[in-house]
Description:
By secondary structure, the protein is mostly beta strands.
Amino acid sequence: MKALKLTCILIFFISCTGHSLDNNRSYQIPVSPKESIPFNTRLKIPDLLENKGKGKNNAVFELTVKKGTTEFFNKVPVITYGYNGSILGPTIRVRRGQTVTINVKNRLNEYTTVHWHGMLLPAEMDGGPHQPIAPGKNWKPVFKVNQPAATLWYHPHGLGTTAIQVYKGLAGMIILDDTNSDKLNLPKKYGIDDIPLIIQDKRFTSDGVPLYLTYMRDIMEGMKGDTVLVNGIINPYLDIKNTKYRFRLLNGSNARIYNFRLSSGKPFYIIATDCGLLEKPVKMKNLVMSPGERAEIIIDFSSYSKGDTLYLKSYDFRIIQFRINKMKNTGTSVPSALADISFLKKSDSIKNRIFQLEGVGHHVSINRKQMNINRIDEYMKINKTETWIVSSSTRGMMGMMGRMHGGGNMFHNFHAHGVHFQIIGRNGRPPLPLEKGWKDTILLEENEEVKILTKFLYKGIFMYHCHILEHEDNGMMGQFRVD
Ligand code: C2O
Ligand code: CU
Ligand code: CU
C-alpha cells in the first residue's frame, strides 16, 4: 500500500513538471551533452544532388545506399550508413510539376527501402515496407510532384529495421520549390542563407563509438542519445552575416523531442511546417518538434555585431553556434503573406475515424493492434475527406511502467503516408497559428486528442504510425488502403 502511494506521488510529480509542450513551460529531459567538445567544427552542408534529367519538367537522380566510415570524435572511425556517402545523404531539390525518377541502388548487405516522407505519390512509389530493395538490387520510383513548396525528407522504412538504419546514418533532405516560393523574397540561396539542419541525437562511448539501445528506457521510450548532431557533426559552428537566414529544421532523431530557442532569448519567425509555407509568419521564441517533423524558420541577425556569437538551443542544450563575422544585409525579407492554403471543410468529411495510440516498449499499439503487413486496418475512398481523431493514452499499467522507467515524458506522435492533413482541434481548442499549415506528423502529449481533416488523393496501401522509430519498429503502425 505504501509503495503504491509513493508511486502515485512520483507519477503526479513527474507529470506536473515533465511533459508539457507549450511555450515557456519548462521541460525535464535529462540531456548530458558532450560539453568537452568545443564548437570548432564548421557545419557541413549536404551537397545538392545533381539532377541528370533533360528539360525542366524532368528530374533524374541517382542514390546509392552504402556503408562507410565516419569519425564522430576522437578520430575513431565508425561504420555508418549513407546515401552516396558515408553518412546522411545529399539534398534532393525538386519542383512542383516535375516528373521525378530516382535510381536507387542498395549496396548494403541487408534489405532497405527509401521512403519519401511528406511526398504525395502513388503507393508503389512510397518506399514503405511494401517496396523492399534486396542487397545488391535497384529500385526506380517515378512520380510527379504535385504539392506546394516544402521541406521533406527521405529515410529507410523496412519492416522492423527503420530505427537502426536511421541511427546508422540513413536520412536526407528534400527541398520542393514552386512558383509561389520562387517569387517570395525569402532567403533561398542553398547553403548560403538557406541552411538545412538535420538534427539527430546519439549516445557514444567515451572513445567515440555510437551506442544503441543500451538502457531500459531506450526500449520503453525509444533511443535518445545525450549528444546532438547537426548534419552529422557534434557541436558545429556556422559563420553568419548580420542579415536574415532561413533554416530548414528536420527532426531526424529516432525518439527525441526538441524545444528550439535562441540563446539570446530573441524571437524568430516560423514560415513553414511539415508540408509547406504557413499563410503568414508566426513570431515565436521557441519551437517544439517531434521526430519526423520539419519547420522552416527565419532568424534575423541584423541586430548583432561582428564578433557576436549565439546558439540555437534545445532546452539548456546548445546545438549549433552562430558566429557573426560579416556586416552585410542581403536584402531578403519576411513577407507578411506567404501562401494561400486551401482548407479542407469539416462539412465535406464523410467519416470520423479513430486512431488511439497506446503503450510503451514492446507493448505499443494503435487501436489495440500491432502492425501486420498481411492485414489492412482501414479502408478509405479516393478523393474523400475524413476527420481523424488521434489520441494518445498513457493511462493504465503500461503508462505507469513507462513513467517509472523513463522518468516522465511519455509521448507518441502520428504520421501518415500518402496524405497531408490539417489540424482542426487539439483537446477541444482550435489550432494555434503554428498548427494551421499542412502537416504529415503531429505530436501527441500524454492523453491528448488531436482532430485532423485529411483527403485521399492516391490509391494503394499506405502506412500510419508513431514516428518514434523504436515504437514504429515495435509495431506501432497500421495500414490503410485507398480505393
Ligand atoms: Cu518518416 Cu513512415 O515515415
Ligand atoms: Cu512518411
Ligand atoms: Cu510512440
